[in-house]
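job 3f2a | input accepted
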Amino acid sequence: MTDDSRPLAVFDLDGTLADTAHRQRFLERAPRDWDAFFAAAPDDPPLEQGVSLALRSARECEVAYLTGRPERCRKDTVAWLAAQGLPEGRIWMRRGDDRRPARRTKLEILQQIARSREVRMLVDDDELVCDEAERAGFKVVRARWASTSAALKDAQERQGRT
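job 3f2a | predicted structure (162 res):
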């Protein structure tokens, strides 16, 4: 359910709410196995700090999700969020053909959202996404509670995959 009168707290998924460590191995070999990487997402353990922040945020805000995951992962993503007890909310996902860096796609979506809704904060683990959002005037919480591999960072920035 959405309530357009409440501000939005926008959360990233991978590395913010979901621990991707167990599936990063699929990105550390050549060629990278994107199908296996995303197929393993339903088994992600939750990141307690991120989940707690989302639940606390839901007291004052509508919680929404902004992820670089491709649209084809929507069903698994919705099920994972529900299994973690996270609030239902709008989920913005990457189009299958969009390979732009996460910092570009996410900022574009945030700016689009902000035209009609107050964005109280963005919570994301990608430093480049956070930098761009802050430069654009958004309040950012940097999710530094999970470890990510160099391969995942490369995927986010150069390959436009997550």
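job 3f2a | The chain has a mean pLDDT of 90.
job 3f2a | closed
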